[in-house]
Input
Amino acid sequence: MSRRDQGLAVQAAQFVNGIEPYTAEVRTRLRGLPYLLHRSGLAATLAYISSKSGAGEGLPGAYSKVEALLKERIKHSEVRGASSFDSLRDPDSVAWLQKLSPAEYARLTEAVADIVLWVKRLSEARHAAEKPGGGPRVTDG
Output
């Protein structure tokens, strides 16, 4: 595993283990993130997650955490201007996304796809570990 993948795996493990309560519905949504990104595209995926996020526990809280995770991933990508990204609720962030070249948009999508794939994998691992006789919980260290 590359060093980059190790960092993403640790980040995703911390994220997945930080979601409580970890319900079947939350697990299903986390496992579906790569498909959503692939089928809908980056902007539509971000808009969907933003529209579903909310305060508190349960699915709205999980979506808020996903939104924060993706925001950090975008901000730390190497795409020009990414450090100023806030959310799709911010008009400046929407304008920034619209001005990206196709190559920059593809690189940004790839950066987001990398983390959501790790979230999916570790969500599946957490589910398997929490089944009776499934073994220890996914760790981040």
User: Anything to note?
Assistant: The domain at 3-130 is CATH 1.10.520.30 (Peroxidase; domain 1).
